[in-house]
Amino acid sequence: MRIYLVGTPEGETRLVRAANRQHAVWYVAQSKYVVRAAGQDDLVELIGQGVKVEMISTNDQHKLDLGG
After folding, report:
1. For 40, phi and psi rounded to 5 degrees?
2. Where would I find the beta strands (DSSP E) of the chain?
3. What number of other Cβ atoms are within 10 A of residue 9's Cβ?
């Protein structure tokens, strides 16, 4: 286990002891974001409000800058 420095979009800096940097980011992100599968009603409402569906590829995930 190592200690990782994780910076948040709000400018907060956190020190997280984790097995790897992905786990450190996950740990911080889970307290900042809500993620769940979108239901049909969610899609109807949000697309109706003009929210666009964003596409991510495997290559995009590998480009994620998690620091070194």
Report:
1. -60, -45
2. 2-7, 13-18
3. 7
Please, are residues 67 and 5 in contact by the beta-carbon 8 Å criterion? Answer: yes
At residue 23, what is the residue type? H
The DSSP output letter for 49 is T
pLDDT in tens, 3-40: 999 998 889 999 999 999 999 999 999 888 888 899 99
At 53, which amino acid appears? V
Q: Retrieve residue 46's tokens.
A: 């949000």
Q: How confident is the model at residue 46 (pLDDT cuts 50, 70, 90)?
A: very high
**The pair of three-digit structure tokens given for residue 3, joined into one six-digit string:** 């200690």
pTM: 0.58
Give the position of tokens 């992905």: 22
Residue with tokens 């900042």: 32
